[in-house]
């Protein structure tokens, strides 16, 4: 009997041997290696967290912090993870924001992460549309949960430099990157939006949110590692 691609995958095997719930744990580990996401963090919120591999990494990375707090949120039920407060809720609802803040003791997060993805249909345009809707929701809730100076990481499906997302996130962060870690399959359209040094919510949130919701998260070229500074230049 032939092995499935996952069973031959080094990251799948590594996840099993390391006790991670999914191979996606290595994506966050590699993103942290590249961007030092946990270097100054003690509090992390994991959105769309099931099955919980990113929450496992967060607990591991914050182990040395005496006041560490990791809160995982998902619509689906999750099995307990040591060191993680798990909330079942819809990230588009204000009540979920309130519950997360309560779980955090009223203190804002240093890092908000989101590896969520909608059910894959196999139709590329539809999958990208679903993912863009999910990321829009993640960005909206992030604005209520992240402290100024904090960082945000989220999965995106892309073919290009995602100029609309860049312009949106430049309104909120000093530093914006798109990065595809080695653990992400070469055949996948996924990349990761990495935003650092949160500036706080825009002065006019009511104008920002329709702009966000109306956007398409699609592009036109390869998306491997695009860096965007405050002047809008890409590298």
From TrEMBL:
Alphabetically ordered keywords of this record: Cytoplasm, Methyltransferase, rRNA processing, S-adenosyl-L-methionine, Transferase
GO biological process: cytoplasmic translation; rRNA processing; tRNA methylation
Keyword Cytoplasm: yes
Entry-linked HAMAP family: RNA_methyltr_E
PANTHER family: RIBOSOMAL RNA METHYLTRANSFERASE, TRNA (CYTIDINE(32)_GUANOSINE(34)-2'-O)-METHYLTRANSFERASE-RELATED
SUPFAM superfamilies assigned: S-adenosyl-L-methionine-dependent methyltransferases (SSF53335)
Top-rank taxon: Eukaryota
MF (Gene Ontology): tRNA methyltransferase activity
Active-site residues, Swiss-Prot/TrEMBL: 155
Protein name, UniProt field: Ribosomal RNA methyltransferase FtsJ domain-containing protein
Gene Ontology CC entries for this record: cytoplasm
């Amino acid at each position: 009997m032939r092995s499935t691609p996952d069973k031959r995958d080094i990251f799948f095997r590594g996840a099993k041997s390391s006790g991670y719930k999914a191979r996606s744990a290595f994506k966050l580990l590699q993103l942290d290696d590249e961007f030092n996401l946990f270097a100054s963090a003690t509090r992390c919120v994991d959105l769309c967290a099931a099955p919980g591999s990113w929450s496992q990494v967060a607990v591991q990375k914050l182990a040395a912090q005496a006041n560490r707090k990791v809160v995982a949120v998902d619509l689906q039920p999750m099995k307990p993870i040591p060191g993680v407060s798990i909330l079942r809720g819809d990230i588009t609802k204000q009540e979920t924001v309130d519950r997360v803040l309560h779980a955090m003791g009223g203190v804002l997060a240093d890092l908000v992460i989101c590896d969520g993805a909608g059910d894959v249909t196999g139709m590329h345009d539809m999958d990208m549309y679903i993912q863009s809707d999910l990321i829009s929701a993640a960005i909206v809730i992030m604005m209520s949960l992240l402290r100024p100076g904090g960082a945000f990481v989220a999965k995106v499906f892309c073919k290009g430099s995602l100029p609309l997302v860049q312009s949106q996130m430049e309104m909120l962060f000093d530093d914006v990157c798109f990065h595809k870690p080695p653990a992400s399959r070469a055949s996948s359209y996924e990349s990761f939006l990495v935003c650092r040094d949160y500036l706080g919510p825009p002065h006019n949130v009511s104008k920002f949110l329709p702009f966000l919701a109306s956007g398409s998260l699609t592009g036109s070229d390869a998306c491997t590692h695009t860096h965007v500074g405050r002047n809008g230049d890409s590298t």
